[in-house]
Amino acid sequence: NAGVTQTPKFQVLKTGQSMTLQCAQDMNHEYMSWYRQDPGMGLRLIHYSVGAGITDQGEVPNGYNVSRSTTEDFPLRLLSAAPSQTSVYFCASSYSGLAGVLSYEQYFGPGTRLTVT
Amino acid sequence: AQTVTQSQPEMSVQEAETVTLSCTYDTSESDYYLFWYKQPPSRQMILVIRQEAYKQQNATENRFSVNFQKAAKSFSLKISDSQLGDAAMYFCAYRNYGGATNKLIFGTGTLLAIQP
Which of A29, A88, B22, B64 has the largest count of CB atoms under 10 Å? Predict the structure, then answer.
């Protein structure tokens, strides 16, 4: 298994540009999420999805859109990039075990470093 | 709302010695998980150890152990026989038990340096 993959690894955008950060997992995990990591602030949850077709907001959703059309993919869209969105972005996934209980274990991707100038 | 606090932005330890990283948290829940994650320069998030709040016994994983004080809402990580590969940013994290989301609440991290 490749686990959780993210592309690109690095990206530089100009203010106002749009782009999509890709996240894919090949472990058939129902749950996927996006975090951003800023210096001195740890990781914060942006959006999450409990399965295909179902998404919800996390702690810092403004400026980001998500959709989940397949179990494998969970892209994060920046419609109009702002310097405040300069950050490292992590995608993570989890599986549901017995009786559909969500596992505590999260598998993180390698991250995407985004710079908005 | 739950919060996680790491009051040591940076720490340094000699190779082969023991170091303890501190973490405190705040929650009104009685059942939850606590984690320590390691983030080396590669940026990869690596789960080091976890603790279920309903377990009184402190978790251990080889050279890593925790001191979980539920009443004090304290969750420290002890690294014994420190090795150069332990150098990394360490994050303490909290998760509610059960539920439909896997939301982790992270502290701000402690950057650990290992002196040879």
Answer: A29
Query: What is the distance in angstroms between the Cα of B6 and the nearest Cα belonging to chain A?
Result: 10
Q: Are A96 and A31 in contact (CB under 8 A)?
A: yes
pLDDT value of position A40? 82
Q: How far is A16 from chain B (nearest CA, A)?
A: 27
Are the Cβ atoms of A110 and B44 closer than 8 angstroms? yes
Give every CB contact of residue A88 below 8 A, 6+ residues apart in sequence. Answer: A36, A37, A38, A111, A112, A113, A114, B43
DSSP 8-state code for residue A100? G
Rounded Cα distance between A43 and B108, Å, is 8
Q: Inter-chain contact A42–B33, Cβ cutoff 8 Å?
A: no
- Give B98's contacts in chain A (Cβ within 8 Å): 101-102
Pairwise CA distance, residues B13 & B98, whole Å: 37
The string of pLDDT tens digits covering residues A27-55 is 999 999 999 999 888 899 999 999 999 99
Among residues A87, A83, A91, A84, the alpha carbon closest in space to that of A38 is found at: A87
Chain segment B55-67, per-residue pLDDT in tens:
989 999 999 999 9
Indicate which of A6, A31, A36, A43 best probes the interface with B, i.e. most B CBs within 10 Å of its own CB.
A43
pLDDT digits (tens, 9 = 90+) for B5-38: 999 999 999 999 999 999 999 999 999 999 999 9
Please count the other Cβ atoms lying within 10 Å of the Cβ belonging to residue B96.
17
**Residues A48 and A114: beta-carbon distance below 8 Å:** no
